Amino acid sequence: MSPLVEVRDVHRSFGSGPTAVHALRGVSLDIAPGELVALVGRSGSGKTTLLNLVGGLDRPDAGTVHVAGTDVGALDDDGLVALRRDVVSSVFQTFGLVPVLSAAENVGVPLRLRRLPADEREQRVARLLDLVGLTPHATQRPDELSGGQQQRVALARALAASPRLLVADEPTGQLDRETGLAVMALVRGIVEAEGVTALVSTHDPVMIALADRAVRVVDGRLVDGPAGA
Amino acid sequence: MSAGARSRVQLRLLGVVLVVLVAGLTVLAGCVLLLTTGADRARQAALGQAAVDDTTVQVVLTDLGDDPGPAVEAAGGALTAALAPVAPGTSTWLTSTVRDVPPGADGGRRLGWLAGIDDLTARADLVAGTWPGVPEPGAPWPAALPVAAADALGLAPGDTVVLDPTTGLADAAATAPVTVQLVGLVQPRAGAWAQDRLAGAGAVPDLEFGVFGGTRLPAAGPFLVDPATLLAAGPGLEQVALVAAPDVAAASPAAVDRITDELGTLTRDVRAAVSGGPATSRVVNPLAATLAAADARLATGRTAVLAAGLLAVLLTVVALGTAARVLGDRRLAETALLRARGATGPQLARRALPEAALLVGSAAVLAVPLAVVATRAALADRLPGSDPGPLLPAGLLGAVAAGVVVLVALLAVGATRAATPGRTTGRGAVARSGADLLLVGLAVVAVLSLGGTVGTDPLLVVAPALVLLAGCALSLRLPPRLAHLADRRAARGRALAPVLVAGDLARRSLAGGATALLVLATAAAVAAGGIGATWSVSQADQADLRVGADLAVPAVGGIPGPVVAAAGGGAVSPVVARPVALGSLLRDEDGDATRLVAVDTTAGVLRGRLPGTDWAGATAGLPAGDPEQGVPLSGGSVVVTGTAAGTGLTAVLTLVLADPTGARTTTALPAVPLDGLPRSVVVDGDGTVVAVAVDLAPGPDDDPDRVARVDLAVTLPGSVPGWVATLPRGQQGADQLLSGLEAVDGGIGFRGRLVLGALPPTGQRVLLTPSRAPDAVPVLLSAGLADDLGADVGDDLSMAVGDTGVPVEVAGVVPDVPSVPGGPAVLADAATLARVLVAAGDLDVAPQAWWVAAPDPGAVGALAAAGLPDAVTRAGLTADLRGGPLAVGLPLGLALLGAGAVLLAVTGSVLQAGAVRSGRRAEVARLLGLGVPRATVRAVLLLQHGIGTVVGVLLGAVVGVVGTVLVGPALTGSPVPSAEAQFPWSSWTALVVGLAVLGTAVVLPVVRGLLRVDVAGALREGGS
Ligand SMILES: Nc1ncnc2c1ncn2[C@@H]1O[C@H](COP(=O)(O)OP(=O)(O)OP(=O)(O)O)[C@@H](O)[C@H]1O
Ligand SMILES: [Mg+2]
Fold first, then answer.
1. Do B1020 and A94 touch (CB under 8 A)?
2. One cellular component GO annotation, for this chain's record (chain A) (predicted)?
3. DSSP states of B803-838 as a string?
4. Which of A81, A141, A157 sits opposite B928 (nearest CB)?
5. Residue A99 lies in a domain
6. Which CATH number is A190's domain given?
7. What is the pLDDT of residue B275?
8. Please, are residues B908 and B969 in contact by the beta-carbon 8 Å criterion?
9. Neighbours of B118 (CB within 10 A)
10. What mean pLDDT is predicted for residues A120-132?
11. Which residues make beta-bridge pairs with B947?
């Protein structure tokens, strides 16, 4: 079976001249369908940069990124938007909730994009909020939620779309151990139950343990295995 | 965001702040200029355009006694002192009592008089001979005569005349005869002879003369002599007029202010000055009235300009507050850091002071010249020829300085205030409700106590600002409610965009933000337009009522209706306009005499606003009685056949002729003896004979005890059905003097028995008319008069027209009678009135004016050429009232406010768009990151901003319309008729659509930029 994600010798740098930052320097990575891959690395090592490329939020400077057979680097802005809508769902490191919408409405955004009937949408939103333990906070707006609660809303939203690929940037970074565990179990469960493929950056050894495999980023290059995490 | 981008955004914001400051300060400075130099220039221009007669001051001394010198000198001193600030020249005009001039060729008695004018050379042109000088002792006085007087008297230069004191006058005995020698002939200059007995005409055939004016004799004069000599001669002076015609238009504003005060006490001062002698003084002071009228009209403009200025200041403060808040938000991090380091609010404000001072200072430096140039240009256009005054009046500098201080403080504090919580706290909401309620309460009180004031009313100045502010506060409560409803609907729907749009509108606070500015500014612009229209229409209403018709021209004796109709070009009605007494009421509370206005109500000439109806409808019931069938007569003669056997009775016939316009003239025929013979009498004049009055007078030898049978027939060309013969209504005992009066069958004539002995010297009058006159004249009363009389529709009243009592019946009440704004007046149908007057024996119904409907464009000139000067059109008067110098304040003040408000409304939209640019970057990145299509994001952004803008503009428009209704009429002063709020829908629509489109369009480039956001980068930043 061909991999769902195919990253080949990808380079990405920011800025130019002497101040340029080479965030990725020749990264290659394949992820098979239904695989849960943990991405580990120190702060600033390039995790988010790689996730953005795989999540269709960014284009590589060199090399190719294929997601579900689509060359991400060749897509125009609208193509990227369509990819994000139809194929990949991201949990951003900064959550990215829409401030004027309540927790439930935020979770409902991908469903509205698909114009799901209201009843169906409400049911699905309620179930997802229940899964992340936020039913009592459904009507609160992001600025009325704690950081951990916002993070869980972001995860519920990413799952709502039933994506083929879930890209989550430190989805448990703001959570206490117990909640973090529950959330990771949830991700693992969904990967298994719905055949979702997932790429999750994390510092959490438990998450690494739950993953099918772990890849490590060091200074913009991939190193196999979780050793030294 | 990079530091460069941050400072670029701040620079852009500072630019907006500068625009707000320049706009606000320019409107403020413009208003101050209108109030100071503008008002002075307006008064100056108005005085410059005023007729000379309206700017003179005259002290008239009579009963001067034997030694008039000291009184004349004292009164002259008082007059000069009062006008000292403008140092006018005073001219003295001495007029002697009437003297007898030696009889002329026909031996008849003729009158003349002497006059001494100290500025004669400026009032007349020398036609022949020399100016009269100082006489040699004992020699005749050198004198000049107007050419017309010399012609009438048959005198030429070189002739010597003795002017004898006329017997019968009070001090004739003390007055010495004067011998004058004619040395010159002069031609009086037009308009400069108002003090002359004959206004410079030179001669009249019938000067009213004698103690009761009972005698009429030919008179000519004056014999113009050296004034000092005439004054020194002592007795025999009838009056001395001291005339000052100060050039107030050229005087400084301060000087005009001072003489306005001085003139108030002039009557008292002059009386005190001449109190030592016998002289009686009278002050004729049109200048004081002119100045007072100018000040009253300027006061209306001043109130409106002050109100506009206040609104502009309010708008500026709101705009600046909004901009400062946005700026403060942008600097929140910086401020928070400083606060964390222990800086207090005042310390932060002090830190921000230099920047604020620099901004406001530069704005003032831009705004003051802008305002000066703009107002000067506008005023030069409206007030040509007026002195522009100082470039920077002290008032302007003071007001701008005060404005600068306030704005600097506001800006420094606003830009450094602590962060506000995103949602209004419970206590904040309660405080806001309280403030809103207080505002609404104040506005209601202000509006309820408006009206009826003259001069500058502080309440009226603050009322517009209060009303608009309260309206704004109230209206801003509406959109969140609507948005909540929409939000709830959208939440139940499938689509994403509606939730995003409605959620945003429902959850972002509007009050205090750019939306509040947009609403208030739109309201101000709309109200400025509405108030302007209200004022403008009110000027037209006032002009309509004052003129009464499209064109009104005073009648000049002898010029008949057809000539007026030919020159005027439209339907013409003769107008009888005279003072009358109605019921027991001579004058109303203000001392105004009741005026009768009688027009041809079928000619459709009446104009003016009439609530609920038009003049044709209102006057439909005024013509009364059967239609009058007169007999056309074109020159030629009538035949009178009368019999009164055995008497020397004569009959004098007076024909009442109506011309095609309905104007009536009378023609008296020579006396006809009633000897049974037909007498043919030539009639001078043509028209339709509508009445014949027959005055029967006894012959010198008639036996007083006799009763004579009188039989009289008048034969007019053509066949005539039977006319009616009546005795004058209201003449006591007439039916005993002339009993058994009956009309002849067919034709015009009567029979009756006359008691010769009881006949008064003027004889007994019999009236022959085609049909019976109505018993009473139906009239419309002005509302004030009906109130004063307590009269209702259907009431019968008695009206005295001259000496004739006319029964009238109240057919209706109108707010005002055309041409009598605000005064007590009676409107009647001219023909009906004339018939009832004729029935009472009163034939004198010559018109005082002509009113023309739909005149030709050149009618005023054509009428003047036809001998009818002084025509006034309502279009012309409207233009004068709207464009005259004294009307300059209100429209310009409103224009300034309107322009400033539009600019600030757009600024509100720009600020809102700026908030979109800075506040939505993260949100746009998030939506795009989630896979929301760019088209959807674009639509959401446009709708969020567009709906906010459109709703803001619409709410502002509603508030502005309400403001127009509530304060518009009061701001136009206290005109008659009272102003009605106007709704200039088309210009309002253009304004609202323009603001909505422009306000929405400013966000387009912002949206385009936002859609190009670096999604990954923006998401990395996080935050909101
Ligand atoms: N938009 C950008 N502009 C400039 N430099 C960037 C940008 N994005 C990433 N970088 C740089 O690239 C490097 C990798 O960043 P990245 O966010 O991928 O790290 P990370 O592994 O996700 O770190 P963390 O665990 O702290 O989230 C960093 O040095 C960062 O400064
Ligand atoms: Mg990261």
1. yes
2. plasma membrane
3. TEEEEEEEEEEES-BTTBTTS-EEEEEHHHHHHHHH
4. A81
5. yes
6. 3.40.50.300
7. 87
8. no
9. 18
10. 93
11. none
Q: Is residue A7 a part of any domain in this protein?
A: no
Rounded to two decimals, what is the model's pTM? 0.87
Q: Could you tell me the CA-to-CA distances from B303 to B254, B849, B852, B967 in Å, in that order?
A: 21, 37, 37, 12
| Best residue of B488, B926, B1012 to probe chain A, by most A CBs closer than 10 Å | B926
Report the chain B residue with the minimal C-alpha distance to residue A57. B1016
Task: Please tell me if residue A177 touches chain B, with a CB cutoff of 8 Å.
Answer: no
Has residue A227 got a pLDDT over 70?
no
A193-225 CB burial, b ≥16 within 10 A, e <16: eeebbbbbbbbbeebbebbeebbbbeebebeee
Q: Which of A85, A92, A141 sits opposite B931 (nearest CB)?
A: A85
pLDDT tens digits for range B296-315? 888 888 999 999 999 999 99
Nearest of B704, B692, B770 to residue B737 by alpha carbon:
B704
B917-950 b/e (C-beta count within 10 Å ≥ 16 → b) = bbebbbbbbbbbbbbbbeebbbbbbbbbbbbbbb
Crossing angle of the two packed helices B286-330 and B39-49, in degrees rounded to 10: 150
Give the count of beta carbons closer than 10 Å to the beta carbon of residue B290. Answer: 19
Q: How many domains does chain A have?
A: 1
Flag whether A208 is in a domain.
yes
What number of other Cβ atoms are within 10 A of residue B351's Cβ? 14
- Residue found under tokens 């996080």: B1022
CB B624 within 8 A of CB B778: yes
The verdict on a CB contact (< 8 Å) between A112 and B928 is no
Q: Whose CA is nearest to atom 14 of ligand 1?
A: A46
- Out of A199-213, B499-513, B591-605, pick the least confident: B499-513
Nearest partner of B911 among B945, B874, B959, B950, judged by Cα: B945
Q: Where are the alpha helices (DSSP H) in B972-1002?
A: 985-1001
> A95 touching B, CB under 8 A?
yes
Q: Do B934 and A84 touch (CB under 8 A)?
A: no
Provide the terminal-to-terminal Cα distance of chain A, rounded to the nearest Å: 30
Distance B900 CA to ligand 1 centre (A): 49
Of A78, A92, A116, the CB nearest to B1019: A92
Contact B931 A82 (CB under 8 A): yes
In chain B, residues with a C-beta closer than 8 Å to the C-beta of A96 are 925-926, 929-930, 1019, 1022
Chain A, residues 42-61, CB within 8 A of chain B, namely 48, 52, 57-58
Contact A96 B1020 (CB under 8 A): no
* Residues of chain A neighbouring B939 (CB-CB closer than 8 A): none
**By the 8 A CB rule, do A38 and A213 touch?**
yes
d(CA B514, CA B609): 43
Per the domain annotation, does A39 fall within a domain? Answer: yes
Sign of CA dihedral B48, B49, B51, B54: negative
User: What is the number of other CB atoms lying within 10 angstroms of the CB of residue A136?
Assistant: 9
CB of A132 within 8 Å of any CB in chain B? no
Token representation of residue B882: 């709207």
User: Which tens digits make up the pLDDT trace of B361-389?
Assistant: 999 999 999 999 999 998 988 888 788 88
Q: How many CB pairs under 8 A join A and B?
A: 91
Q: From B770, B845, B773, B758, select the one nearest B804 (Cα to Cα).
A: B845
Residues contacting ligand 1 via CB (< 6 Å): A 14-15, 21, 23, 41, 43-49, 93; B 1017, 1020
